[in-house]
């Protein structure tokens, strides 16, 4: 899958509680939808703005999670399409699984995508992990509601957290996960 390939236009959604600020991508000039990015000076401007501290708006347009309704330890594939209001240099997506109960909190670092220079407009990423390591999490804490979080990070700044609810149930001694897209 092309990490920066265009996606089908399924409408774009700003996620509630995201940390992104700024104008929508429709309001941007070159490099945005309908803008020309042939002019090198204009094409480099969004990256310079991002480096200067302007936070881009992120609109998530598609989230695909597979497999689902399977053992919690099974492999995980997460694909996401998103729109950026401006370029974002040297950014990556960091993915974590959070299990939280009244007595304890577990954060399982699943990994991160490669560092990329994302451009203004449509982008995408693919994240895969062969297993989710739940060792050290008590069964009582695991059979609960948790979060799968994909965070777009640029340097020390988190641009947006995309939170997906994970429901884990115990069925015949196995812990089964169901992950819900925030767009549904």
Automatic annotation (TrEMBL):
Family annotation (InterPro entries): ASF1-like_sf (IPR036747)
Gene Ontology CC annotations of this record: nucleus
A Gene Ontology BP annotation from the UniProt entry: chromatin organization
Skewed-composition ranges (Basic and acidic residues): 1-26, 36-52
Region Disordered: start-end pairs: 1-59
Superkingdom in the source lineage: Eukaryota
Protein name listed in UniProt: Uncharacterized protein
